[in-house]
Every structure is written in structure tokens, then in C-alpha cells.
Amino acid sequence: MSDKRKKPSVSRPSFGSRVRRAMLRFLLRSWAGFLLIILTALAALTAYQMWRGGLVVALSLISQFVTNLILIAAVLVIWRLVKMWQSGAIKDMLLDGMMQGQTTIKSTVQDAKGALVSLGRDVQEDLQEIVSGKPAPAMMAVSGAPRCPSCNGLVNAGAGFCASCGAALSRTCPRCGRVLTPQARFCDACGARLGSGK
User: Fold this and answer.
1) Which DSSP category does 147 fall into?
2) Percentage helix, strand, coil for the chain under 3-state DSSP, each rounded to 5
3) To the nearest 10°, the Cα dihedral for 12, 16, 17, 22?
4) How many Cβ atoms from other residues are within 10 Å of residue 131's Cβ?
5) What pLDDT was estimated at residue 142?
6) Residue 75: other Cβ atoms inside 10 A
7) Which residues of 21-34 are buried (b: 16+ CB within 10 A; e: fewer)?
8) Cα–Cα nearest to 177, from 193, 189, 185
9) Helix or strand or coil: residue 13?
10) pLDDT tens digits, 111-137
11) Is the pLDDT of residue 75 over 50?
């Protein structure tokens, strides 16, 4: 007896189902081209109607024409984004952006650490000077604040005398009237010799 094994029968899809599948594959692969053909034909038809119909018809159809142009632009943009997504360009752009962001964050954190270390040293030095009884140099010279030359006290800008010790804060040249510092012995504008008294 011969042992004949039956091969499983594979049903072949019908011609109609193969055509439907082929059309579906075509539409999925070239959906942008299909849409662009339809939208371009609609825009051309609308433009022809606007040209043939006169001003009143053209004004009524202008919104439809502009809508067709916007849809064409949108399809082109979406098609380009899909192509970029399929090629991996968007993924690469996102990864590059994330890498640059991480690098920026790391450098910012390093700068902040350096600034905090420097601030900690300054505070520690100031505290040591305060505890030891010596005035801290940073406390003696506040940047931009006017000081009295006699007692080093803070004075108001434009004041003529120190509110703490009463010392004169400026001198006036007797020849040209220029306002000078109390320590000046000569006028820096006209060269006149100033008296030794304050």
C-alpha cells in the first residue's frame, strides 16, 4: 500500500480580493500623491470657474480656492513629516536635541556648583574674620556706596558732610568752582593749589 499524504490545500484569494488589496496598498503608499491630484484638480476647477464667472462669482469662490491651496500645503507638510519619520530623521533630530539639552544642563550644573563653592568660601572667610574681630574687607567696601574718608561710614550720595563724624565730604576749587575730594591738594581741572585745611 502506498502511503500518500495529502498536502493541505491553500485557498487562493479570489481575483476581486487581490485587486482590493492591491488598491489598498497603492493608496497607503501613495496617499499623498492621490490627495494632491484631487486637491489640485479642485483648485484648478475653482480657478477656472472664478475666471469664467466674473467678479461676483470670483468673490464667492475665493474662500473655496484658498481652502484648496491650504489643504495642498497641509498634505505636502504631512507627507514630508511621514517621510522623515520613516527614514528616522525625526528620531535623530529628537535625539540630537535631547543630547544638546543634557550637555547644557550639565554645564549649567557645573557652573552653579562652582559658584556655590566660591560663595561658601567667601562666607566662611567672612565669618572667620567676624569671629576673630577683624572687619571683613568685603564689609568695608560695598561697591558703589559712598563712604566718608575720615570714618569710612556710609553717606548719602550728594551729601556735603558725614552724618557720623561731621567731616567734609567734598571741597570746592576757589578758582574754577569744581567739586573735589577732601584729600585733594590741587584742582584736577585748573591746577590751582588748595589750602591745607579741610
Assistant:
1) B
2) 60, 5, 35
3) 110
4) 8
5) 46
6) 19
7) eeeeeeeeeeeeee
8) 189
9) coil
10) 888 788 888 888 888 788 777 766 545
11) yes
Q: Are 61 and 46 in contact (CB under 8 A)?
A: yes
Give the alpha-carbon dihedral of 156, 159, 165, 170, to 10 degrees. 130
Whether the Cβ atoms of residue 192 and residue 176 lie closer than 8 Å to each other: yes
pLDDT score, position 66 = 92
Residue 138's pLDDT is: 47
- Asked if the model's pLDDT at residue 79 lies above 70, the reply is yes
Domain locations along the chain: 16-90, 107-140, 144-198
pLDDT reported for residue 10: 59
Kind and range of the H or E run holding 87: helix 55-87
How many residues in the chain?
A: 198
Distance CA 129, CA 117 (A): 18
Residue 39 and residue 69: Cα distance in Å, rounded? Answer: 8
Half-sphere exposure of 105 (CA within 13 A, CB side): 6
